UniProtKB/TrEMBL annotation:
The EC number(s) this enzyme carries: 5.6.2.4
Family: Belongs to the helicase family. RecQ subfamily.
Keywords of the record: ATP-binding, DNA-binding, Helicase, Hydrolase, Isomerase, Nucleotide-binding, Nucleus
GO MF, any single term: DNA binding
Superkingdom of source: Eukaryota
Pfam families: DEAD, Helicase_C, RecQ_Zn_bind, RQC
Keyword Ribosomal protein attached: no
Organism lineage string: Eukaryota, Fungi, Dikarya, Basidiomycota, Agaricomycotina
UniProt cross-references to NCBIfam families, sorted A to Z: recQ_fam
Biological processes per GO annotation: DNA double-strand break processing; DNA replication; double-strand break repair via homologous recombination; mitotic intra-S DNA damage checkpoint signaling
Protein's name in the database: ATP-dependent DNA helicase
Principal EC category: isomerase
Main location: nucleus
GO terms under cellular component: cytoplasm; nucleus; RecQ family helicase-topoisomerase III complex
Length: 529
């Protein structure tokens, strides 16, 4: 390619081989490296495991680029920084981590001393935001033309659109203003367009080089399974398919992680939990046990993952519904980084959507930020996941990659997902009448001054002979038992679907009359699967 003609090519190749001991570049690595050495802003969008770190570690040790000096790397997780710095030091590269724990004499020596400056300086966004000492150092380097570039790793943390949003990332916009002329490189594995635009705007990237590649992970297989008795299901699955393999099980709550890990151990599986409430040393130990294979299965919240570099993860299981498709993609992306086959299994129950909605609302309450737009956005993101789970006719890869703006041909999935392995035709069922009756019943019951559960609504539609229904007089309602001939499963699905599309939530109360969405009419055209 024309990059071979780049003035930096020979130095870059030389460093790749001698220092990193690698033979060749992966997709877009060389391009991103030469662009940043050319002092351009660069945006690198690469799936987890794609090799983002090399894109800034390698130019940091080259001298032929247009800007010289220290490469400042901003990255959100201290554990991850330590790993990176250690592995750089092992390669003989002078990297330095400056955070709140760094002893003062060390800082004095390495940063203020007269010796050579580190090639890479790793800082957290909080440090960059809060430390005037660091700011002064950077200003000084800037003045003396020894600030080569800023690197913003996990750049999606700047965007409130994502689940990884970090407050201190918001202030990274000042880098462009306070350090004019210093190129910025932003890297992320989160590819949705809104987030990308947000990163570019907030970091004030200028005429940046943009590198993206396919997000398809050909060695991953995707499965959605009905969630029933989920832990026994998981145990059976692991025993059948993944004996002795390393894996991750994602759960929504911290307590849930502990319970599930315990249950797996009772079944003789090697499992440990991991979540944000643990102390750092507990986390480090658990992580080390898992990395070296003493523990096979980690049961974790989404606190576990960013920067985890274990190549031989053979399965990622979602015990609960993920909050967004991009989160789901990231989490599943931790499987099979060695390129060998790995499985991603999500256990789905429609109820999980309601749980997530409640959690989203509670999160916001706690933070006392009643930002309705943000709540809606997050609920919408969870809704996308439900749609993905419920769509049993379209290839999972086609669905997932479409979410990232990528067109994928179903033929290329090659049996890599449940929908391609076992093609289940969707039989449309006209549920308009049931839906109308359900909503009408709800109105009638509301007029009686009652609130009912979804389970009860199903029983009323079914006309169940239950004392609790008779006691309330529901058996006298004109529509009681109006769906008595319908299978229980169908009623359950209809009610869940109505709830999912928000039909059952009153939208407004005017003059004492409650009005509802009328979208339910279209349910007949949807696939109730
Ligand atoms: P990311 O940050 O994108 O998730 P990493 O930078 O951690 O990915 O790289 C993932 C793995 O790929 C690492 O083990 C790294 O050594 C390896 N890797 C990166 N670039 C190359 C390359 N050009 N050739 C071979 N291995 C590479």
């Amino acid at each position: 390619t024309n990059h071979c003609n780049s003035p930096y090519y020979s130095e870059v190749m030389q460093q790749l081989r001698s220092i990193f001991k690698l033979k060749s570049f992966r997709t877009n690595q060389l391009e991103a490296i030469t662009a940043t050495m050319d002092a351009r802003d660069v945006f690198v969008l690469m799936p987890t495991g794609g090799g983002k770190s090399l894109c800034y570690q390698l130019p940091a040790i080259c001298d032929s680029g247009k800007t010289k000096g220290v490469t400042v790397v901003v990255t959100p997780l201290i554990a991850l920084m330590k790993d990176q710095v250690d592995s750089l030091l092992n390669k003989g590269i002078d990297a330095f981590l400056w955070n709140a724990d760094t002893p003062h004499p060390t800082v004095s020596h390495r940063i203020y001393g007269s010796g050579p400056k580190p090639r890479l300086l790793y800082v957290t966004p909080e440090k960059l935001d809060g430390s005037s000492a660091l700011k002064n150092v950077l200003k000084n380097w800037h003045r003396t033309n020894t600030l080569a570039r800023f690197v913003i790793d996990e750049a999606h943390c700047i965007s409130t659109w994502g689940q990884d949003f970090r407050d201190a990332y918001k202030n990274l916009g000042i880098l462009r203003d306070e350090f004019p002329g210093v190129p910025i490189m932003a890297l992320t594995a989160t590819a949705n367009q809104i987030t990308i635009d947000d990163i570019v705007t907030q970091l004030k990237l200028n005429n940046h080089a943009f590198y993206r590649q396919t997000f398809n992970r050909p060695n991953l297989r995707y499965f959605i399974k009905d969630k029933k008795k989920v832990v026994p299901q998981i145990v059976d699955y692991i025993r059948a398919e993944h004996v002795g393999h390393a894996g991750v099980i994602y759960c929504t709550g911290r307590d849930r992680c502990e319970i599930v890990a315990e249950q797996l151990r009772e079944e003789g599986l090697s499992a440990a939990h991991y979540h944000a409430r643990m102390s750092n040393s507990e986390k480090d130990t658990t992580l080390a046990d898992w990395q070296n294979g003493d523990v096979k299965i980690i049961v974790a919240t989404i606190a576990f993952g960013m920067g985890i570099d274990k190549a031989d993860v053979r399965f990622v299981i979602h015990h609960d519904l993920p909050r967004s498709l991009s989160g789901y993609y990231q989490e599943t992306g931790r499987a099979g980084r060695d390129g060998k086959p790995a499985d991603c299994v999500l256990y789905f129950h429609a109820k999980d959507f309601n749980i997530i909605c409640k959690m989203i609302k509670n999160d916001r309450d706690r933070e006392q930020k009643q930002d309705q737009a943000a709540i809606n956005r997050q609920i919408e993101a969870a809704r996308e996941v439900v749609k993905y789970c419920k769509n049993i006719s379209v290839c999972r890869r086609v669905q997932l990659l479409q979410f990232f703006g990528e067109k994928f041909s179903k033929n290329k999935c090659a049996g890599g997902c449940d929908n391609c392995i076992d093609h289940r035709p969707v039989v449309p069922e006209d549920v308009t009448a049931i839906s109308r009756n359900a909503v009408q019943l709800l109105r009638d019951i509301e007029r009686m001054g009652d609130n009912i559960t979804m389970a009860r609504l199903q029983n009323i539609l079914k006309g169940s002979n239950l004392a609790e229904l008779r006691g309330k007089g529901y058996d006298k309602l004109p529509l009681f038992g109006s769906a008595q001939d319908q299978p229980k499963e169908l009623l359950e699905q209809v009610v869940q679907h109505l709830q999912f599309i928000d039909v059952l939530a009153p939208v407004a109360v005017q003059n004492g009359a409650t009005s509802y969405h009328t979208e339910y009419i279209q349910v007949s055209q949807c696939c109730i699967c």
